[in-house]
Amino acid sequence: MVGMARGGVPVAHEVAEGLGAPLDVVVVRKLGHPDQPELGLGALGEEGVRVVNEPLLARLAVPAELVEQVAARETAELERRVAAYRGDRPPVDVRGRVVVVVDDGLATGFTARAAVEVVRRRGAARVVLAVPIGSPEALSSLEGVADEVVCVETVGRFFGISEWYRDFTQVTDDEVARLLADR
Q1: Alpha-carbon gap, residue 61 to 140, rounded angstroms
Q2: Does pLDDT of 40 surpass 90?
Q3: Which residues on adjacent β-strands are paired with residue 27?
Q4: Whole-model pTM?
Q5: Nearest to 117 by CA among 141, 76, 146, 78
Q6: Rg of the Cα trace of the chain?
Q7: In what order do the strands lie in the sheet with 2-5?
Q8: Which residues contact 119 (CB under 8 A, 6 or more apart)?
Q9: Is the pLDDT reported for residue 74 higher than 70?
Q10: Which residues in 9-24 are b (16+ Cβ under 10 Å) and which e?
């Protein structure tokens, strides 16, 4: 069981506990547009993974230099989070195993795409992406990326993940570290 940091870790913790499975984290970062940080241009992940939304970059005429600036900033944050969550401990060995990648929901799917690629690079035999809520577009775009996509609820009028939670308080680094230590 691998939770996407940060919001996917509490969800993955519950699933791992229910299944009696080990829990690890995969750190990914959205490449947000500098003028609109919630507008995802793509995502970065551990293992040097980078996925970009090429159609969006072309449509908005985003210069490559701008993407590189955002990527440099997000890479530094990604590295900081890996150190905060794992320290010197290596990732759980997933070679030849079925890995369930869990997030708190899918809006565009680019961070999930990056997370799936990270566990594939680590040698997972099969990758299942599991989320409680997702947009039909994001789910559809990930069907060819993960071996299986499991979503509890798919909604047509999707404005954001937060609208589907009573409490969508930001998950802290300390909470992620505590949940990982608990499993």
Answers
A1: 26
A2: no
A3: 5
A4: 0.91
A5: 146
A6: 16
A7: 49-52, 36-45, 24-33, 2-5, 98-102, 126-134, 148-154
A8: 2, 26, 94, 99, 101, 127
A9: yes
A10: bebbbebbeeeeeebb
